[in-house]
Amino acid sequence: MIRKEVLDSIKANVENENLVKHMLATEAIMRSLAKRLGEDEEEWGLTGLLHDIDMELTGGDMDSHSKLGADLARELGASEAMAHAILCHNETHGVPLETELDKALFCADPLTGLIIAAALVRPDKRLAGLEAGSVKKKFREKSFAAGVDRQQISLCSQIGVELDEFIELGLKAMKGIAADLGL
Ligand SMILES: [Fe+2]
Known about the structure:
- The chain is mostly helical.
- Helix content is about 60%, strand content about 0%.
- Fe (ii) ion binds near residues 52 and 109.
């Protein structure tokens, strides 16, 4: 798979810039996780990049979301392992998380939202000065970005990365693409 082709396809299917940024952020975290765990960085990164490609096409229909996404990913050349991770990141289908890649995508997805929310409440609204300790504190504040599923993020321990390290790794990864995220 060629990243540029994947990104072009995402841009053709997703108008909402924040959704594109969410997928870029997920990609960055997935690449870092893959590096940390000795997995395939390209495979994991592109899975993160692609995972919500169908969000607008399915128009909020959670019964279709990620089924279409997995099909679109396959058309773009994704492996079955990638398509499976994309399919099961939407719990609606009841497809169990089986592989490390499945679990990684599932826990990286909501972490992006927590980190973006933590950046946006800063006076400068930037990632640069945001510290991991602050994100960890926000994680424990249940009323902060209440839609972010903390339990889902915590599943990082199932791939051998404890929560504190996961938050540090995720923040660092997202800081690395801060310009692309407009943060
Ligand atoms: Fe997502």
